[in-house]
Amino acid sequence: MTKSELVEKLAGRFPQLLLRDADISVKTILDAMSDALADGHRIEIRGFGSFGLNRRPPRVGRNPKSGERVLVPEKRVPHFKAGKELRERVDRSLLRSPVNGGSGGGGAHAAHGQAGQSAQAGGSALLDGGLNLVRS
């Protein structure tokens, strides 16, 4: 699901909400989440999952062209951990309709495609007031 699809779904779910207002709402939520992560906070959306930061320590890497050793500085990278309800919902949908016709193959693409389908199906649960943002 893309951001524009989420905006359309939000506007469709709430007819009194203009598409422009739905777009502003989605952008505001995403900006608030981005700001919280940039400030080092954790975001928890009960039933959906949590966003946090993982620290990648500094390391010595190599320039692939020259083979020269290069110091790669420490980084903080965003990390998402799915909540129990989301994991169970994705698992149930996988049992009902396997991606790419069954087991084996597909790897990350199959998992990503299935998660996208579940996010589309689960959008209404989030829109029903199921958001509970916790900053820590």
UniProtKB/TrEMBL annotation:
Membrane-traversing stretches: none
Chain segments annotated as coiled-coil in the UniProt record: none
CDD domains named among the record's database cross-references: IHF_B
Protein name: Integration host factor subunit beta
Species annotation: Cupriavidus malaysiensis
Subunit annotation: Heterodimer of an alpha and a beta chain.
One Pfam family, short name: Bac_DNA_binding
Function: This protein is one of the two subunits of integration host factor, a specific DNA-binding protein that functions in genetic recombination as well as in transcriptional and translational control.
Entry superkingdom: Bacteria
Region (Disordered): 87-122
UniProt biased composition (Low complexity): 109-122
Protein family per UniProt: Belongs to the bacterial histone-like protein family.
